[in-house]
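Figure 2 data, in text form.
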Amino acid sequence: MSVTRPPDSGKTARLEARLTNEQKALFQRAADLTGRSLTDFVISSAQEVAGRTVREHEVLALSGRDRQVFLDALLNPPAPAKRLRQAASRYKNATAR
């Protein structure tokens, strides 16, 4: 099976990695089974896992109780404490010039 590759899309960065013969053989077998080059297979696999990892770390998951506490704080915020009022006053004075 022949896979056509798109023309170079301005790729200039390079990544190198050392791996065992067993790892390379496994990656090559998987690449062959999907009809891709070893490089394309490794890059697409790494990109997929990297994207999933980033999404997992960017999403905040709350329990039902946590969600309720958060919403209550938004809808019924506590009055500002004395130190916060003082800090706001100092900020207003400093920026009023």
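Caption note: The chain has a mean pLDDT of 91.
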